[in-house]
Write a structure and sequence with these properties.
By secondary structure, this protein is an alpha+beta fold. It has helices at residues 12-18, 35-40, 76-81, 83-88, 90-97, 102-107, 110-115, 165-171, 273-279, 286-296, 308-324; strands at residues 5-7, 26-29, 48-51, 61-63, 67-71, 175-180, 183-188, 211-218, 223-229, 240-248, 254-263, 270-271, 282-283. The mean pLDDT is 97. It binds flavin-adenine dinucleotide (FAD) and iron/sulfur cluster.
Length: 333
C-alpha cells in the first residue's frame, strides 16, 4: 500500500476543508471495508486519507413525525437493528441486515455503502486499464460479464451499482444531505447516483470536495420490502435485488404510490416504471405481482452472460411485492 498522511478531523466543516477539487489524491475513510481493499490492491492510491471516525455528528439519528434522519457514519448493523428503521422503513432494515456478514455490518457505514466503488473484476484488477481507469475500452462488454448489467442500453461501462441500501432508499423516497465548500444541499436519493464513464467520475454525483452528512427517510406509512436473489447464502452481493414500497396493498386493498426499484442490474439503481404502472391502483395478488415482475424486465438488453438475470428480476419483484403486502412467503418451506 502506498504511504499516506492520515487526518482525523472532528467536525464536518473540518472534513470538507481537507478535501480537494479532484478525485484521487485525498480519500475519505469511514469503516474502511471498501477503501482499504482498494488501497491494498493499488486501485486507489491516495497520499492523504481523511478519517471520519471522530466526527460525532455523523452518528446521529433523529426522528420526528415527518422523517427519520440517519447520520452517514451509522453502521449497517445499527441501521438494521434500529427500532424506528424497522418500523418505518422495513425495506431499508432488511437490505442493511443482509449485507455481507456481521464483521462487514459492524464496520461498514451508511455513507460508505452509498459511495462504495463498483465490483467489476476488470476494474478491481490493478493491471487492467479499462474506461474507468483512463483506458480506451470496457473489457466486460465482450469479456467475462456474468455479474454485470442487464439494462445496458446507452452505457459504455456496464457495471452494476453495488449498494443494496440504494434501491431501498430510493423506493422509500429518501433524500441525502450533503456538505460542500459552499454550504449544504439536499438531493433526492433517486438523483444521487450516476453511471460513471471515466476516471474523473464515481458511481455517485458527489463532488470530490463534498461530504455526505445524512439520509432522511420520510415517514409516510408506506409498506415496503427488499428481496435479494443470491447465488447462495454467503458473504456476497446479490445477483438481483428488488426493493418495493406502496401505500395500501394489504388485505386485498389497492396499492397506490407504487415504487419498484431494482438493484444489481444496471450501472445505477433501476426504477422499473412499467412495473410501477402495471400495479398502480390494483390489489396485490400472486397474479398481479407476477405481472409486475414481467413488466419490470421491460427494456432489458442483457450482455452475453447476463440473460439469466431477466428471470431473476421477475422473481425478485414478485416476492418483494408479496412480502411488502404481508403475504405468506410461498417459497419458504
Ligand atoms: C464480503 C463483502 C460482502 C458485501 N456485500 C454487500 C452487499 O450485499 N450489499 C452491499 O450494498 N454492500 C456489500 N458490501 C460492501 C459494503 O457494504 C461496503 O464495503 C461498506 O458499506 C462500505 O462502508 P465503509 O464505511 O466501510 O466505507 P469505506 O470503505 O470507508 O468507504 C467507501 C467509499 O465511500 C466513501 N465515503 C465513506 N463515507 C463517506 C461520506 N460520509 N461522504 C462521502 N464519501 C464517503 C469513501 O471515501 C470511499 O470511497 C460487501 C462487502 C464485503 C467485503
Ligand atoms: S464494466 Fe466498467 S469498470 Fe468494468 S471493465 Fe467495463 S468500463 Fe471497466
Amino acid at each position: 500500500m502506498k504511504n499516506f498522511t492520515y487526518f482525523r478531523p472532528t467536525s464536518p466543516e473540518q472534513v470538507v476543508g481537507l478535501l480537494e477539487r479532484t478525485w484521487g489524491n485525498t480519500e475519505l475513510l469511514a469503516g474502511g471495508t471498501d477503501l482499504l481493499d482498494l488501497q491494498k490492491e493499488y486501485i486507489a492510491q491516495p497520499s492523504r486519507v481523511v478519517s471520519l471516525s471522530s466526527v460525532a455528528q455523523l452518528k446521529n439519528v433523529s426522528l420526528n413525525d415527518r422523517a427519520i434522519t440517519l447520520g452517514a457514519g451509522l453502521t449497517l448493523a445499527e441501521i438494521a437493528n434500529h427500532a424506528s428503521v424497522r418500523q418505518h422503513a422495513a425495506a431499508l432494515a432488511q437490505a442493511a441486515g443482509q449485507i455481507g456478514g456481521p464483521q462487514i455490518r459492524n464496520m461498514g457505514t451508511l455513507g460508505g455503502n452509498l459511495c462504495q466503488r463498483n465490483r467489476c473484476w476488470y476494474f478491481r484488477d490493478e493491471h487492467v486499464a479499462c474506461l474507468l481507469k483512463g483506458g480506451q475500452r470496457c473489457f466486460a462488454l465482450d469479456g467475462e460479464n456474468k455479474y454485470h448489467a442487464v439494462f445496458t442500453a446507452g452505457h459504455r461501462c456496464v457495471i452494476v451499482h453495488p449498494s443494496t441500501l440504494a434501491p431501498a432508499l430510493i423506493a422509500l423516497g429518501a433524500t441525502a444531505e450533503i456538505l460542500g465548500p459552499n454550504g449544504r444541499r439536499t438531493v433526492e436519493l433517486a438523483k444521487f447516483f450516476r453511471a460513471p464513464t471515466g476516471p474523473n467520475e464515481r458511481e455517485h454525483t458527489l463532488a470530490p470536495n463534498e461530504l455526505l452528512l445524512s439520509v432522511s427517510v420520510p415517514i409516510s406509512g408506506l409498506r415496503s420490502a427488499s428481496y435479494e436473489v443470491r447465488h447462495k447464502q454467503a458473504y456476497d452481493w446479490p445477483l438481483v435485488q428488488a426493493a418495493v414500497a406502496f401505500a395500501g396493498g394489504h388485505n386485498g386493498a389497492k396499492a397506490t404510490n407504487v415504487r419498484i426499484v431494482l438493484g444489481h442490474v444496471a450501472p445505477t439503481p433501476h426504477v422499473a416504471e412499467a412495473a410501477q404502472r402495471a400495479l398502480e391502483n390494483r390489489a396485490i395478488t400472486e397474479a398481479t405481482a407476477a405481472a409486475a415482475g414481467r413488466a419490470a424486465a421491460e427494456g432489458a438488453k442483457p450482455l452475453s452472460q447476463t440473460g439469466y438475470k431477466v428471470r431473476l428480476i421477475e422473481v425478485a419483484v414478485k416476492r418483494a411485492l408479496l412480502l411488502a403486502a404481508g403475504m405468506k412467503p410461498y417459497w419458504e418451506v
